[in-house]
Design brief:
By secondary structure, this protein is α+β, with helices and mostly antiparallel strands. The protein has helices spanning 5-14, 19-25, 43-49, 76-79, 92-96, 114-123, 138-148, 161-167, 192-199, 202-219, 239-248, 310-316, 366-371, 388-394, and strands spanning 32-36, 55-56, 63-66, 83-85, 104-107, 128-132, 154-157, 172-178, 220-230, 252-255, 264-266, 269-275, 285-292, 325-328, 331-334, 347-350, 352-358, 361-364, 380-383, 399-400, 407-413, 416-424, 427-430. Among the domains are: 90-292, Rossmann fold (3-Layer(aba) Sandwich), CATH 3.40.50; 373-439, Archaeosine Trna-guanine Transglycosylase, Chain: A, domain 4 (Roll), CATH 2.30.130.
């Protein structure tokens, strides 16, 4: 690959004693890793069940390197949402952000959802996760990944942060800003970013990053934490952005990040961390942790249930979830506590999609299936991992199974839900969402 000369000069200045090793590392293969979905399975149990050889990622408790030839995206456990495929260094920012049960958490630039899914795991089904991305089209993959993880207490939105801060001044306990950047740290893995860098380098992104971080700081409540991260090396996109926000928001302070082997401190900013691909098994990254001084306040908002379609109501009696259903048009949602008012901003999904009404016909949602445990639905079939019916179901085919009654049935692999089917005389008519069917 032909690298931009300005970038080469920059890296020679940043790494005067290591640039040969750094540039040599760009010829090495990149790494494949997965992060366990602890909302559905413990790390220990996943390690016992894992179909792949696993090697821990040092800077996170739930991440593991896997052989790319193992094709982790083509395993039934992936379809069941037991793990997320993620670049190893990209696991760091969400790991650094302190999140406790009941917190209100914002992911400002969330698509495609790798970091949001980790934040959802930290919340453990409590509080609120606001996952935002300014690109509505990219929000579709964000929504799909959060649904795969069985996330219930989330609101997926598509707004500019300058608009979000008007709605949520000093509202969030924890905020992640994984900012858009020039992508220097990903050149080895994604070669197309080199051409993008030639068109839009650090000078283009730095003002955007400062604006997003300023907006995020305005939404951070007293006592709250904020992580800023990029996958680039340019100081003007990293340390200079942090210095800017510390100057414009004197209530913020920079916290030290514990150093793992291979990490280095920021440029004249030892509290921050830089990850270089010649020092670690991963791509390039930068991260800094900030905190707003002061005492946090409590959150009060709640959402009550409302009237829903009769057919949906009959089906949902079979689901062991608290009665917090609300109908919006043709969609029936399970609404978590503390979801904010939705009028006046672009919300793609609020809470858990439980079902839809199509042409007067009721259909339970794929998102609901993936959010349930088998014991939370009154008719379930579970196939072993080596049962050929698993692959047939994932391809959208009808399969045979013994069921106690006709009607809606939750289909599982090893007791992990995959989706719904409709049982009729021992036949399971496939209702797996078409976008999730294997080709």
């Amino acid at each position: 690959m032909e690298l931009p000369k300005s970038y080469i000069r920059q890296m020679e200045n940043l790494l005067p004693d290591e640039y040969d090793r750094y540039f040599s590392s760009l010829q090495d293969p990149s790494y494949t890793a997965i992060r366990v979905n602890t909302l559905k399975i413990s790390v220990e149990e996943f390690c016992r069940r894992s179909p792949f050889a696993l090697k821990p990622v040092p800077w996170t408790a739930d991440g593991f390197y896997v052989d790319p030839d193992a094709r982790p995206a083509k395993h039934p456990y992936y379809a069941a949402g037991l793990y997320y495929i993620q670049e190893p260094s990209a696991m760091l920012p969400a790991q650094l952000l302190p999140v406790k049960k009941g917190d209100h958490v914002l992911d400002t630039c969330a698509a495609p959802g790798g970091k949001s899914t980790e934040l959802a795991c930290k919340l453990r089904g409590t509080g609120l996760l606001a996952a935002n991305d300014i690109s509505t089209s990219r929000c579709q993959s964000l929504l799909k990944n959060l649904e795969s993880f069985g996330t219930r207490d989330a609101i997926i939105c598509s707004e500019d942060t300058s608009q979000l801060k008007k709605r949520f001044p000093k509202q969030f306990d924890a905020i992640l800003v994984d900012a858009p950047c020039s992508g220097q740290g990903m050149f080895r893995k994604e070669h197309h970013l080199i051409d993008s860098y030639r068109q839009k380098g650090p000078a283009y992104y730095a003002p955007i990053q400062k604006q997003i971080l300023d907006d995020a700081a305005d939404m951070l409540q007293p006592g709250g934490h904020l992580v800023y991260s990029t996958c680039t090396f340019a100081p003007e996109e990293n340390e200079e952005v942090i210095r800017h926000v510390l100057k414009t928001h004197p209530d913020l302070k920079l916290l030290p990040i514990p150093m793992t082997e291979g990490f280095v401190g920021g440029i004249d900013m030892p509290e921050a961390v830089r990850l270089y691909p010649h020092r670690i098994q991963g791509e390039g990254h930068f991260a800094a942790l900030l905190q707003n001084a002061g005492q946090p306040k409590s959150h009060q908002q709640t959402v009550k249930s409302g009237p829903i379609d009769a057919a949906a109501q009959e089906f949902l009696r079979r689901v062991d979830l608290p009665d917090r259903y609300f109908q919006k048009g043709d969609k029936i949602l399970w609404m978590a506590d503390r979801l904010p008012e939705q009028k006046g901003w672009r919300v793609l999904r609020s809470g858990l999609l439980a079902s839809t009404i199509k042409r007067g016909r009721f259909e339970p949602a794929q998102a609901l299936a993936l959010a349930l445990k088998p014991e939370q639905f009154d008719q379930t079939v579970s196939f072993s991992l080596d049962d050929e019916r698993v692959l047939r179901y994932l391809r959208g085919e009808t399969v045979m199974a013994d069921t106690k009654q006709n009607g809606w049935t939750l289909v599982c692999v090893e007791n992990f839900p995959l989706g719904f089917a409709k049982a009729e005389s021992g036949r399971l008519k496939n209702k797996l969402e078409k976008s999730r069917r294997w080709q």
